[in-house]
Design goal:
Strand order of the largest sheet: 5-9-8-6-7
Order of helices and strands: HHEHEHEHEHEHEHEHEHEH
Number of strands: 9
Largest sheet: 5 strands, parallel
Distance between the termini: 38 Å
Structural class: alpha/beta
Number of helices: 11
Helix content: 25-40%
Strand content: 15-25%
């Protein structure tokens, strides 16, 4: 979002009082919206892994400022799945990095009641994944920063920084399951949602590289 901020700092930001209210969208529109627009579920990573709406991605509310700017097309509306009580804080976070174009939000409780959370992804420990990684049965994708990867990484790991993963996802192979891995499991959970949305069979490595090292 740095290029966007350069322009905003030059011409000035929109006043929040001039922005249109963010409307509540009926859950019946969620499937169609997710096919056309980016829909960010701001719930906890563990809850998203267990059940979520297909076609959505997961950026927990506490991580919006750090990561949303990498994934959002600033020229297109983005939609949220969020609790009503936390919506204003989440909008403030997004607006602080220039994301003013929020097309609407789906209330998380209403999405739950509508029974739309029909998809999940798996998680596994380093011990459970070790043989599959070493034998090449899965593709291991390390989504940490380049400096972290260069300082030490798991053998056979392919480096794809989380921030650019959504834009550069097409080059990844789909002929085998993909294991997403970061330092401790938080960033790789976001990556898992991006990869699954793109059609990959994905597993999140619990505890990430740190757990791998700790396990010897």
């Amino acid at each position: 979002y740095f290029a966007v901020m350069k322009r905003v700092n030059k011409v000035g930001p929109k006043l929040t009082t001039d922005l249109l209210p963010v409307r509540t969208v009926n859950p019946s529109e969620l499937e169609a919206t997710a096919k056309k627009r980016l829909v960010i579920d701001t719930g906890a990573a563990g809850e998203f892994a267990t059940s979520h709406m297909p076609g959505t991605i997961n950026v927990p509310a506490s991580n919006l400022v750090q990561w949303a700017g990498f994934f959002v097309d600033y020229n297109e509306p983005v939609f949220l799945i969020a609790d009503e009580g936390s919506l204003s804080a989440q909008l403030r976070s997004l607006r602080s990095i220039g994301i003013d174009n929020v097309g609407g939000y789906f209330e998380a409780g209403a999405v739950n009641k509508a029974g739309l959370r029909t998809e999940s992804y798996r998680s596994a420990t380093p011990a459970q994944l070790r043989s599959r990684i070493e034998e090449g049965d899965v593709t291991l994708i390390d989504v940490r920063a380049a400096t972290e990867f260069q300082a030490g990484h798991i053998a056979r790991a392919e480096h794809r920084f989380l921030g650019t993963l959504l834009r550069n996802i097409e080059g990844a192979r789909k002929d085998k399951p993909v294991v997403a891995q970061c330092l401790a499991g938080g960033r790789s959970a976001i990556a898992a949602s991006l990869l699954q949305r793109a059609g990959f069979d994905v597993v999140n490595m619990q505890g990430g590289y740190q757990a791998w090292v700790d396990a010897g």
